[in-house]
Amino acid sequence: MSYKSSKTGNLNRREFLKSSSGIALFIGASGIFPALVSCTDTKKIQEQFEKHAITAWVKISEDGQILIYNPASEMGQGSMTSLPLIFAEEMDADWSKVHVEFSPQESDIYGSPGWAPGSKLMFTVGSRTTNSYFNVMRKAGAQARTILLFTAAQHWKVPVEELSASNSIITHKSSGKKISYAELIPYLTEMETLPDVSEVALKDAANFQLIGTDIPRTEIPSKVDGTAQFAIDVRLPNMLYGVLERGNLHGAKPTLLNESEIMGLEGIVKIVPFDYAIGIIATKLEQALKAKNQLKIDWSTSNASGFNSEEIYREYEKIANQNQSGEVITNEGDINQAFRNASKVYQADFKNDYVYHAQLEPLNAVIQVTEDLQKAEVWVGSQQGTDTKLGVPGVLGIPPENVNVHLQYLGGGFGRRSLNDFVEECAVLAKEVAPKPVKLIWTREDDLRYGTYRPMSLQRIKASVDFSGTIQAFSHTVVGDGGNLVASGIRNDHYAIPNQFADWRSTSHGIRLKHWRSVGHGPNKFAIESMLDQIAYDQQMDPVALRRKLMVNSPRALATLEKAVEISNWEEPSPEGYAKGISFVEHGSLGTGVCEISLNKETGEIKVHRVWIALDAGTIIQPDNVKAQMEGGIIMGISSALKERISVVNGQVQQRNFNDYSLLRMQDAPESIETVLIPSGETPQGVGETATPMVAGAIANAFLHLTGKHLRHMPFTPERVLEALNS
């Protein structure tokens, strides 16, 4: 009996099952995985194997070790544990025997339908990994358990309904027989029929043994002892090194003026021109970087020429003043009538500068192309994407199945590594020197000057209240480049405001943009939450009382508010010179945060001392890891709110490295961060991007309570703080 597979060649079933020193359990589900149906004879089994591209999600070795594949990137968010944990829960696997590896980058097999109906993407962005893979991994794990139970039933010749599984052991209660998953291997390999696993029963949440418990993350030991492999660690025989000089004027075209001089330098193998850069390939990285520093390039102008980021806000204000709306995002009720009937109208502009991703590991990739240019091997830390082969087939002009991507750990992503520009650049270089492998490395200066930033934007918010102080209208206009990059998070679905309007008014400056942790939620939620406190302050209302009224129809959101109030002792006054501010955010999960700050009025420096957050993320897979995500998000939120900014003068990025791109330092971190989780039993929601956008609003609101002054331009640098104090 045999089957055909374009990925594995012709193997008979027994050989395939015994491959990789263990046993592959075939997982299938219509629309997600190739279906495995009940077979009544050998011929039908063979037909099924020939018809479907069967694959494995799990392998069991003869000593009981279990290998489970993780289809998502691991960039510190814990997917290397959370997704296999979900699988192991339904499989009833002994977690102490579980090992985890990245799955092959094959979206037809390992993709999730959680992004869009009919899609099967491998895309680790938007805090949607656990959410989109939750049902996929549960069903796949349950299918594995079903096959094992079926095998034991066949072996013991008992009805499968009489069997139960727990901790990698199958038990027949009436006879007292027990058998481990590992002991089933010889019987499974000899089976001539398989169970129908197109529909399998999932556990009741009350019976979860792994989900909801604090399980240590699988990859942490290797990261601690240095054995974890990131793409930058990859070394191949005869490997060459590539670097690019891209300048700091986005979109400018280069003309190299000293090519012969560069080619005469030691170790230089090739110069590769790009439309926007000059590439150098050398035998050593040091040689490539030395040559890069000696390049003489005449740069053209570009769409960014003449652009000044600080001055452009005046143009943004003019765009916001225009009577004509932009792209309408929200239009509920009658906003104009509400303003006409208002007791009082509030209006304010909020601004935010460009922000850099600042991921710790510099962008890099290793690619080896065969001499005939028909196949490629890729080693890279990527957040994957709509193309799991990361653009390499297009660069090389070969079929996707001829590209094999070896996913590595990511030393930070935050959205930057969901763009494949650096992978495609490496493919261009590797094609030039095939079959030798090439490692492309972006220096920190490369990535900071020619990076892809969270867009700058202006938010104009106009709101009205009636005679009772109740908010009746809320209008939000965002001006900036990037569409959803600036417009996400603009809706107020959890606030009962009867008349709402929001629109986006487009600009373009030729600056490279990309998703940055929480995308538009950061600027938009800062503006929304700051406006709410401005109204509460003017109306002499407690900002918590104001939000309670607004959340009347959103009990889950209200629960996070009440819990944050409780754990922060909101009702108790802060010590002299300190103040608390509150902010609510939804980004998949729902969260309310409180920051307590102090202010040095001489220097203008804000210090965040304590942070409390209450979070409803639905079903919690790993509580301790969720808290870690909250802590990381809060630190990143404080950093972006107080320090981080990219400035552009005459189209050129002014910052070069971490000496002039400020990040939060250890001495600036809060003294404590307390997170309380509110399990709701709903489908798991993302947590990686909930904490970050709530911080700026909470800090600004604490500043308002402390000083009676408003902070409306992120980051809140000391200069801007002093300006606000003196306004």
TrEMBL record:
Domain of life: Bacteria
Gene Ontology terms, MF aspect: oxidoreductase activity
InterPro entries documented for this protein: Ald_Oxase/Xan_DH_a/b, Ald_Oxase/Xan_DH_a/b_sf, AldOxase/xan_DH_MoCoBD1, AldOxase/xan_DH_MoCoBD2, AldOxase/xan_DH_Mopterin-bd_sf, N-heterocyclic_Hydroxylase, OxRdtase_Mopterin-bd_su_IorB
SUPFAM superfamilies: CO dehydrogenase molybdoprotein N-domain-like (SSF54665), Molybdenum cofactor-binding domain (SSF56003)
Domain spans labelled Aldehyde oxidase/xanthine dehydrogenase a/b hammerhead: 225-303
PANTHER family with a match to the protein in the record: ALDEHYDE DEHYDROGENASE, BLL3820 PROTEIN
Protein's recorded name: Isoquinoline 1-oxidoreductase, beta subunit
